[in-house]
Amino acid sequence: MAKNGPRLAVRAVIVHKDRLLLVNAYPDGKSDLMCAPGGGVEIGASLPENLAREVYEETGLRIDVGTPCLVNEFHDPTVGFHQVDFYFRCTVIGSAEVAPAWQDVENIVTDRRWVTQDQMARLRVKPDSLIDVAFGDDLLSYDPLELLVR
Predict the structure, then answer these.
(1) Per-residue confidence (pLDDT) for residue 1, from 0 to 100
(2) How far apart are CA 50 and CA 30, in angstroms?
(3) Which of 68, 57, 49, 42 is nearest to 104 (CA)?
(4) What is the pLDDT of residues 97-120, one digit of tens each?
(5) Does residue 36 contact residue 13 with C-beta atoms inside 8 Å?
(6) Which residue ranges form the domains of the chain, and what is each CATH number?
(7) Do 25 and 106 contact (CB within 8 A), yes or no?
(8) Alpha carbon of 63 to those of 41, 117, 122, 136: distances in Å?
(9) Which residues lie across from 22 on neighbouring strands?
(10) pLDDT exceeds 80 at position 149
(11) Helices (H), strands (E): how many in the chain?
(12) What is the pLDDT of residues 4-29, one digit of tens each?
């Protein structure tokens, strides 16, 4: 069990021109795993405020945060880590172009890309349900506790 309870995080499901924005947040090529942009929740700011900040930090994009679409949780029992991610449908405000030289605040994100559903199916992406949430018709999904992978 996590020492202080689960870590809360927010993630953006941004589909623009039939492409989903994915990021890789493993510095130095430690993993090829892709996920939706987002990150940890800071106390004192709403979930949408946290998400807008995180997406800007990681991609340089401004977003409008819409409705929740997925709750996902994962854990690593060997270190007592447990995280709950809240995913929101979002739209880009202004240009959807991610500057190739953009550097996130913590210099962790090493790859940012817009992918089609077919391209996404050939990538390692977590959570497993993200492709269905992004390109399907479900209004809200829950992806139960899964092991953390790297």
Answers:
(1) 42
(2) 26
(3) 57
(4) 999 889 888 888 989 999 999 999
(5) yes
(6) 7-96+105-147 (3.90.79.10)
(7) no
(8) 17, 21, 27, 21
(9) 113
(10) no
(11) 3, 7
(12) 789 999 999 999 999 999 999 877 77
